[in-house]
Amino acid sequence: MKIIVLGSSAGGGFPQWNCNCRNCSGVRLGTIKARARTQSSIAVSSNGKDWVLINASPDILTQLRATPALQPARSDRDTGIAAVMLMDAQIDHVTGLLMLREGRPIPLYCTAAVWDDLTLGLPLVHVLSHYCGVQWHVLAPNHTISPVELPGIEDISFTPLMLSSKAPPYSPHREMSQPGDNLGLIIENKKNGKKVFYAPGLGVIEPHVHTAMRAADCLLLDGTFWSADEMIRLGFSNKKAADMGHLPQSGKGGMIEVLDAITGPRKILIHINNTNPILDEDSEERATLTQHGIEVAFDGLEISL
Ligand code: MLT
Ligand code: MN
Ligand code: ZN
């Protein structure tokens, strides 16, 4: 089983178009050691030709150009994307669907809560019905947690877990979370039992999430913010990380502390916001992560399990 990180940044990407924070201007000018990153998405395959796209970022076309494996060129018009699965309805995870409009109807796996947002708040499904159309496969019906097999994707099972995070700002459920607004995903290679747990938006580590984390061989977890009040301190927002559904890395009960208590899996942060000091590879914060055995995902990172 192979996983390719197509985009490792949070919404806005890195550098963000309108941002001149230390990180964004530093990476633009080359004054800090950091890599640019596109918005949040991964691809999973067992045979290297048929892929499940997990989240469809607005940067998808750039990501596909950078990832030849996703264009197997078996016919005049082709794609390696066999299906798209969504973890939530955030703009950075769904608007790439519009970029896939020239293809065949998109097999789309998402919960009823996310489908709701994509038919009402941000009606991409309606828009796409005038192009390729979307075939909805409901994920986690009745909020059940059971493995899903995808046609054409052999030897991999996908188990969605309900997470506590946030629906997008435009969603009617932003302030009243519904089950299925946010998912994590256990991706298992059925041939050898190896598991990845993927959760790009994670606000609270509930017991079932902790169990999934402990059982995994590799963790790809919410790395949005270093500190709880990062956006406030920079004067960019009045929202704390928790208000946006993200668990910060530092501080009591933060991601570093959570991960310290788990031994075994490879630990990787993903969905990094452009304000996060860990993007500067020479920063103290990055050194702290390294001391704790925690890696930071980058675009193009490949994981084989
Ligand atoms: C989030 O996950 O909170 C998003 O990255 C916000 C956004 O897309 O602007
Ligand atoms: Mn996001
Ligand atoms: Zn910035």
Automatic annotation (TrEMBL):
One short Pfam name that applies is Lactamase_B_2
Protein keywords: PQQ biosynthesis, Transport
Which pathway does the database say it acts in? Answer: Cofactor biosynthesis; pyrroloquinoline quinone biosynthesis
Keyword Transcription among record annotations: no
Similarity comment: family membership:
Belongs to the PqqB family.
Role: May be involved in the transport of PQQ or its precursor to the periplasm.
Name of this chain's protein: Coenzyme PQQ synthesis protein B
This protein's species is Undibacterium arcticum
List the gene name: pqqB
